[in-house]
Design brief:
The complex is a heterodimer of chains A (about 300) and B (about 280). Chain A is an all-alpha fold. Chain A has a single domain, classed as MetI-like (MetI-like fold, Orthogonal Bundle). Chain A has 13 helices and no strands. In chain A, α3 crosses α13, α5 crosses α8 and α6 crosses α8. The longest helix of chain A has about 35 residues. In chain A, about 45% of the residues are buried. Classes of the chains: A mainly alpha (about 300), B mainly alpha (about 280). The interface between A and B is large, with 93 and 92 residues.
Chain lengths: ~300, ~280
Amino acid sequence: MAKIEKRLPFWQRESFTPFVLLFPAILTLVLVVLLPLLFSLYTSFTGYRLIRPDSLYNFVGFRNYERIFTDWDFWVAFGRTVLFLTIALNLEFLFGLGIALLINRITWGQRTLRTIMMFPMMFSPILVGYQFKFIFNDNIGVLNNALQSLGLSDGAIPWLVDKHLAMGSIIVAEVWMSTSIFAILLLAGLFAMPRDPLEAAKVDGCNPWQVFRHITLPFLMPFAFIAMTIRSLDVARAYDIVDVMTGGGPAGRTELLWTLIARVGYDNSRMGQANAMAYVSILLSIAFTYYFFRKLIAARRYMGGAN
Amino acid sequence: MSSALKKRIGKAVTWALTFLLMLIICMPGLWVVLTGFRPNREVLAKPAVWIPEELSLNNFAQIFGFGAEQVAIPVPAYFTNSLIIALTSTAIAILIGMSGGYAFARFRFRFKDGIFLGLMLSRTVPGIALSLPVFMIWSRIGLIDTKPGLIIVYVALNIPFTIWLIDGFFRQIPKEMSEAAQVDGCTRWQAFWKIEFPLARSGIASAAIFAFLTSWNEYALASQLTRSTDSKTLPVGLMDFTAQFTIDWAGMSAMAVIIIVPALILTFIVQKHLISGLTFGGVKG
């Protein structure tokens, strides 16, 4: 067999087959993601402006990076993005865990509940943004209308215009959209959970909290980290929500890294600088994903390796 | 308190919480759907009209250009664009993803983990960050504001996740089955189409639906790479409404319904496979 392999040209050998199969995928990603990103890296060292095409060859070294790192607006947006992600992901995990435990207790109609739970996952972020823009609208929004009809407030609360409330409203939209992925994966974890350790712990006199803390939760963590990993792949979807709901306003109070990139790149047409920012945002995303992926591997090992 | 009573209270609390939860999940969407059927003056009324007095298909007729009042937003064109772009990019992504997923599920090769990690990392690039260089290149080679331009991008966007899901589905099929077929005289190619593909078909279908939804819902890239009715998709078109002097909430809601409905139907079909695909691929990786 090995001899026959030797005589074939290399592209027909068995060991080469996987590369043939993967070639279209790799080619597409190189052309659409890798090469553009290399071009983007080059651009981030130029003073490229959309309105002056020849400025693409105007090499400025690290000036774009120096400028954004000394730019207060950039750091505010960066900090806000990290804070936003921390709050949103933690809330999503906590709510998701609560929902999974709740649905797990229900025996009747569980499948239907699970189906309903998946709906927000499939909503386009742009629709989630629109839906909450409509709900939080100060004048005709259903939330203010309800508060007024119930007599809880007499004025119109400017949910999306007030500088303190706007970010909270966006977090509500984000959490609404993404909690279900945690709930569904944690529920899948609860279904897969072996009964024996639970029974044994009860026999040994553990109270429900101890059982949860030391048996259920460690078992669920890999599932939580799968959810976190999947989520960290698409955290930038928040751009859509912010763009619809506030467009980064009021007065830049809801500006996230991603909306800032769009503003600098397309609205101010300063492509070079926008690309430098884009690189920071890419590194941020990769860091998030890598962190949770490592956690996932570690949690899997802790479980004794599901391989 | 007797334990029977305690149990009943516990059950009641569980049901009350579940009811509240379902309300929070369903109400926002239902409210938008309801608004899609109401006239604008009722939506804007002060004090609020809670019980709809008038429900009609007028908003839908209008955004599709049948109504008495014409709406300046070419929704039918956006709808066609969305459909063409999402279907084409899904079909291509599934073909590429099947071949890639099969490679990961059935072969051992050098750099396997590295390639897999590379594929996944390509997915972490935020849409808006990717849009900058793609915008610059596409406008140089004339792909800006064209359907193929967006289709290529969506194929690339869908490949990593498609490979991940399909890899998981192929791995659930025992290797021995296709090996047995090959012993019986099938080529590997025949064994794939006769044994493995039929078994993984429903999983592949759910990967396809997932890819379709990603393309159908995408906004960040589409909003920068499209300009006109030649290629604008529904999510980008939805933002057209906000550019008007007064937001047409009823029309916008009707358009939202058009975007939601296909997504919900597909979700309903795919839900079971999606959950098993995600957990399998992740935990047993």
